[in-house]
């Protein structure tokens, strides 16, 4: 089974015959068989060359870069091989036709809302008393269909998240300083974890888009931009509650991560190396976790659920089957 590779040490990544070789700054060498690499994440200073990039492009491996503060810096997105002019035309048509765009935008918000509610109901059933938050979000969700403007729809989504995040003090067993979502820059441990893991999920979705015929720059809820793969942002909204939020709850409630795992001199903007590795290990475990799919009647991983979602979006765009967003059923 292919998997993601995470590079935390400084060094050089290069092609060695038909494999990759990572040479750490201390001279230690590690051969990485190309057959088992799904994508690569770089969290340190790594030297690469065009020979390597050409090789990765031939194989079709995305590389995602994060800077010193673990902020997402960008991706090497190989030349697309699974292209479809027909699908691209339909993608653009669904963006250009405002009725069709609004329909898809609402579906992303509905999917995200349903999965947020699933998380809250899970913890409410375990004695966290989240009924007030659940009721508030259900009311907000019921109002989505009243709006026709994308900005208004995103405003409803923002209000849903505001209520959702206000409940985290009841869910998390640690004493946390978390009053509201702050992004630029994140101002405490919780905001830093959310920002970091959201950006990692964004790249996970991007790697999956590369395996489909979808164009990653054409989106419906988030405005397409020259600086981002905005379809990843749309799709990630649906999976944040399952992959990001549940991982944060687990890490904090099991005391695997605490305030002490952050560099305070950088105002919570940088995870210590040991904590970063722990988080990425736990994320990879979560992405490879399997569940029995109700429709396919077979076990699929969380990561493959993202690919299946993209296939559903493709079918909607091609007018083959109306898109129904993924909702957690377990």
From TrEMBL:
<dbReference type="InterPro" id="IPR002729">
    <property type="entry name" value="CRISPR-assoc_Cas1"/>
</dbReference>
<keyword id="KW-0460">Magnesium</keyword>
<comment type="subunit">
    <text>Homodimer, forms a heterotetramer with a Cas2 homodimer.</text>
</comment>
<comment type="function">
    <text>CRISPR (clustered regularly interspaced short palindromic repeat), is an adaptive immune system that provides protection against mobile genetic elements (viruses, transposable elements and conjugative plasmids). CRISPR clusters contain spacers, sequences complementary to antecedent mobile elements, and target invading nucleic acids. CRISPR clusters are transcribed and processed into CRISPR RNA (crRNA). Acts as a dsDNA endonuclease. Involved in the integration of spacer DNA into the CRISPR cassette.</text>
</comment>
<feature type="binding site">
    <location>
        <position position="157"/>
    </location>
    <ligand>
        <name>Mn(2+)</name>
    </ligand>
</feature>
<dbReference type="Pfam" id="PF01867">
    <property type="entry name" value="Cas_Cas1"/>
</dbReference>
<protein>
    <recommendedName>
        <fullName>CRISPR-associated endonuclease Cas1</fullName>
        <ecNumber>3.1.-.-</ecNumber>
    </recommendedName>
</protein>
<feature type="binding site">
    <location>
        <position position="222"/>
    </location>
    <ligand>
        <name>Mn(2+)</name>
    </ligand>
</feature>
<dbReference type="GO" id="GO:0004519">
    <property type="term" value="F:endonuclease activity"/>
</dbReference>
<dbReference type="InterPro" id="IPR019858">
    <property type="entry name" value="CRISPR-assoc_Cas1_HMARI/TNEAP"/>
</dbReference>
<dbReference type="InterPro" id="IPR042211">
    <property type="entry name" value="CRISPR-assoc_Cas1_N"/>
</dbReference>
<feature type="binding site">
    <location>
        <position position="237"/>
    </location>
    <ligand>
        <name>Mn(2+)</name>
    </ligand>
</feature>
<keyword id="KW-0540">Nuclease</keyword>
<keyword id="KW-0479">Metal-binding</keyword>
<comment type="similarity">
    <text>Belongs to the CRISPR-associated endonuclease Cas1 family.</text>
</comment>
<keyword id="KW-0464">Manganese</keyword>
<dbReference type="InterPro" id="IPR042206">
    <property type="entry name" value="CRISPR-assoc_Cas1_C"/>
</dbReference>
<keyword id="KW-0255">Endonuclease</keyword>
<keyword id="KW-0238">DNA-binding</keyword>
<keyword id="KW-0378">Hydrolase</keyword>
<keyword id="KW-0051">Antiviral defense</keyword>
């Amino acid at each position: 089974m292919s998997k993601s590779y995470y590079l935390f040490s400084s060094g050089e990544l290069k092609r060695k015959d038909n494999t990759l070789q990572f040479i750490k700054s201390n001279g230690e060498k590690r051969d990485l068989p190309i057959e088992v690499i799904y994508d690569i994440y770089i969290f340190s200073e790594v030297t690469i060359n065009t020979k390597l990039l050409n090789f990765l492009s031939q194989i079709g491996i995305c590389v995602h870069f994060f800077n010193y503060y673990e902020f997402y810096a960008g991706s090497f997105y190989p030349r697309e091989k699974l292209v479809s002019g027909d699908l691209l035309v339909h993608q653009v048509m669904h963006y250009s036709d405002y009725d069709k765009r609004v329909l898809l935008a609402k579906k992303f918000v509905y999917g995200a809302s349903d999965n947020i509610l699933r998380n809250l109901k899970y913890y409410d059933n375990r004695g966290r008393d989240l009924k007030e938050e659940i009721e508030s979000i259900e009311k907000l969700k019921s109002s989505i269909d009243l709006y026709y403007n994308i900005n208004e729809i995103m405003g409803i989504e923002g209000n849903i998240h505001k209520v959702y995040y206000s409940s985290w003090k009841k869910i998390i067993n640690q004493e946390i300083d978390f009053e509201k979502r702050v992004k630029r820059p994140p101002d405490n441990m919780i905001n830093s974890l959310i920002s970091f893991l959201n950006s990692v999920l964004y790249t996970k979705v991007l790697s999956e888009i590369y395996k489909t015929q979808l164009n990653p720059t054409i989106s419906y809820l988030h405005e397409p931009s020259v600086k981002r793969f905005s379809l990843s942002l749309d799709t990630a909204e649906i999976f944040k509650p399952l992959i990001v939020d549940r991982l944060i709850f687990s890490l904090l409630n099991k005391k695997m991560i605490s305030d002490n795992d952050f560099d305070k001199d950088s105002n919570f903007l940088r995870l210590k190396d040991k904590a970063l590795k722990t988080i990425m290990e736990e994320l990879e475990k979560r992405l490879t976790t399997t569940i029995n799919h109700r429709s396919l009647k077979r076990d699929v991983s969380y990561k493959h659920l993202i690919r299946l979602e993209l296939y559903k979006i493709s079918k909607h765009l091609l007018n083959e089957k109306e898109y129904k967003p993924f909702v957690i059923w377990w």
